[in-house]
Amino acid sequence: MSESKTESELRAEICEIGRRLYNRGLCSGIDGNISVRLNQGFLCTPAGMCKGFLTPEDLCIVDKDGVLLTGSRARTSEILLHLEIFRVRQDVDAVIHSHPPCATAFAISGRDLPQGILAEAEVLLGRVPTSRYAMPGTSEFAQTVTDLLEGSSAILLANHGAVTFGRDLHEAWAVSESLENYARILLLAAPLQDNRPLTAEDQARLAAFRKQYMGC
Ligand SMILES: [Zn+2]
User: I need a surface site. Which of 80, 103, 125, 188 has the fewest CB within 10 A?
Assistant: First the structure.
């Protein structure tokens, strides 16, 4: 859990996750943002900076309304999305918003990510719904995920990207990486003629394991 770590450890973790997002191609340019819940406020990435080159001093601390408390840079423009997730999901201590290419292809289609296909995805991702479109950075955009948060670890943002969340940064990162990997596998499998989905019984066993393992 994030609160068992010091603020300086969490700053270093955010910078490390930023490098991974950039190096894995899940965020390009100045895309994406990362945040963690602190005992007082929320630590987040700044606006307008590449996530591959962040230093601990670049990060911002904001309150529950997104008002900057500490930091010399402007906070991410997507903080309202992060804060909405922290508000609704008290079990969540870390949020990652990225623009992963394969997962975003599904977000453009407007469809939820298919389930019942890959065992690991059933456990780590579970249901991955797609939100309705709204203008990024607005409170209306933040509210597009509200009704989709219960029991989920990842949401596709229509015509935009993805957001993942977890009990700590490493869990949110694992979901981000697995989400893109799963979306890529779905696209690779799509042209094949003889794909066989998991049985209903296997899906139920995996869903039960997800509840135990991921706590949601
Ligand atoms: Zn975005």
Answer: 188
How far away, in angstroms, is 97 Cα from ligand 1 center? 7
Question: Ligand 1 centre from 195 Cα, in Å?
Answer: 33
Q: CA 12 → CA 42, 59, 87, 145, 179, distances in Å?
A: 15, 10, 24, 28, 24
Q: Taking Cα atoms as reference points, which of 135, 188, 179, 133 lies closest to residue 21?
A: 179
Enumerate the β-bridge partners of residue 36: 43, 94
Whether 13 is catalytic is no
Residues 134, 151: Cα–Cα separation, whole Å: 22
3-class secondary structure, 155: strand
Q: How many CA atoms lie within 13 A of 151 on its CB side?
A: 10
* For ion ligand 1, residues whose CB falls within 5 Å: 161
pLDDT in tens, 46-91: 999 999 999 999 999 999 999 999 999 999 999 999 999 999 999 9
Span from the CA of 94 to the centroid of ligand 1 (angstroms): 16
Segment 125-179, tens digit of pLDDT: 999 999 999 999 999 999 999 999 999 999 999 999 999 999 999 999 999 999 9
